[in-house]
Amino acid sequence: MTTPPTSTPDPDGASSGKRTYGPDFLTALFQNPLDPGYADAAARRAEGHRRTGARKRLTSGLSLIVTGVIGFLLVVGYQQTVADEPGRTQARDALVTQVEKRRAQTETLQARADLLADQVARLRERELGGAAVAGIGNLEAATGLAPVQGSGAKIVLGDGPTSVDPVTGERRTEGLVKDTDLQLAANALWAAGAEAIAINGQRLTATSTIRQAGEAILVDTRPVTTPYEVVAIGPDDLAKEFRAGVAGTFFQTLSARFGLSFDTTKVKNVTLNAAPELKLRSASPSTPPPAPSGASSVPGSGAPSGTSAPAGSPSEGGR
């Protein structure tokens, strides 16, 4: 016996005679944004089915407990903040008092140091005489230990705009002035004949350092900020020589490409303050030691014939 073929239902609806489609998820979501459970709950409330009896009392009790705990925590936090405020105020007042006291002590010591420096200068002039004092003054001016006045050039460098890479989020710093830029400017001014240089008022000496610490630039451990003013005393054409030189060309290129500001002007009758007192690291006699008796010496060397000058001689700077 054969089984009659089972008829396959028409998914498109044979009675309608046309193909129909059910709504997709996004269409259904926009047409009915509420969850069916919310609609059922609203319908039950409309019919008068509300929480009653023990369930309602339990829900109300839990709400009161939670509200009480939150209020208690807020009160405790407020009381703790009020209790700690006098201690913070006292600590801040104590620090302010210490800073003011140390500042007053510093000013007193600085005034005493200036008074002693004047006394030393008067005693030196009285003991050494005019010619020797004038020679010492010239040496102090050359080494940066005395203020100087004259004409020269002023180089102004300023940070350009910085941008952030939209892909990597990295901040571009090509337009910022770096320590190497100030080093280049100072070296170019020395090479052009500058006799004294100061960066933002900090006098440069033979032992000065220009270094970078993060994005801050330190001149002899003292921070300087943009705009950076490099003032030099030297020949009348110092500004022109700087702009036409390698350093000037380099800064003009940075200005055109990255927006770094660069300006060179000629200045007259500027005063550069003295640098802080130098600390000597080593010293050696300025005259060669006497040659041993009976041994001839090489003229001008201070060493016996047939031997070379010892290491650390004055000609090598004591190193």
TrEMBL record:
This protein's UniProt keywords: Membrane, Transmembrane, Transmembrane helix
Protein name: Membrane protein
Highest taxon listed in the record's lineage: Bacteria
Entries under InterPro entries matching the protein: DUF881
Family stated for the protein in its record: Belongs to the UPF0749 family.
Annotated region (Disordered), positions in chain: 1-22, 275-319
Listed PANTHER family: UPF0749 PROTEIN RV1823 (PTHR37313:SF1), UPF0749 PROTEIN RV1825 (PTHR37313)
Transmembrane feature ranges: 58-78
Species the sequence originates in: Actinoplanes ianthinogenes
Low complexity: compositionally biased ranges: 1-12, 293-319
